[in-house]
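For practice. Any example?
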Amino acid sequence: MLKTILKYWLLTAIIISGLFVIMYGLAQQVERLGADDPQIQMAEDAATRLANGASPQQVVPTEKVDIATSLAPYLIVFDRDGKPLASSAELNGGTPTIPSGIFESVKQQGEDRISWQPQAGVRSAIVVTQIKGGAGFVLAGRSLREVEKRENGLEEIALLGWGGLLLVTLLALFLLFWRRPLKGATPVATPQAQN
């Protein structure tokens, strides 16, 4: 009987685990992809202004954002070779740089959206777009700190739900099969009440 219970529970556990992995993956992706929304608009608007003749200094806010500590969004304008022209982002007292491969990707696709970690513990959701005519690039970014906190919360909820559901199904299977007679077993007759 115990083997039967464990066999059914294992099958149920596999199905439940698969569903929880899919649900968590979808929720995590929705959360992460949503982190790009403000930067998409910022990068596209800045690139349009630059293409229409604005200078990088007119487009980029003058207030510096320490990307290691701040949740504020930031902009960096690069020339066609990937050298920074103007930046509201600051890291360790200077303008952070991104890998040159990102510029190559943007030249091919027009835009790139990535999670960027310029140093340990500093992660940003960035959108890099090309200025019309290939005059340069605009990077818009913001910290992933709060998004990652929400993702960790989702992970904890998913793990608790997964573990709880596995336990409930195991208990339900015990209750279902424990009192059921074995195949081929003769039920025990109960004495009839006499009048």
Q: What stands out?
A: The chain has a mean pLDDT of 88. Residues 145-178 form the longest helix (34 residues). The first strand starts at residue 65 and ends at 66. The two ends are 39 Å apart (CA to CA).
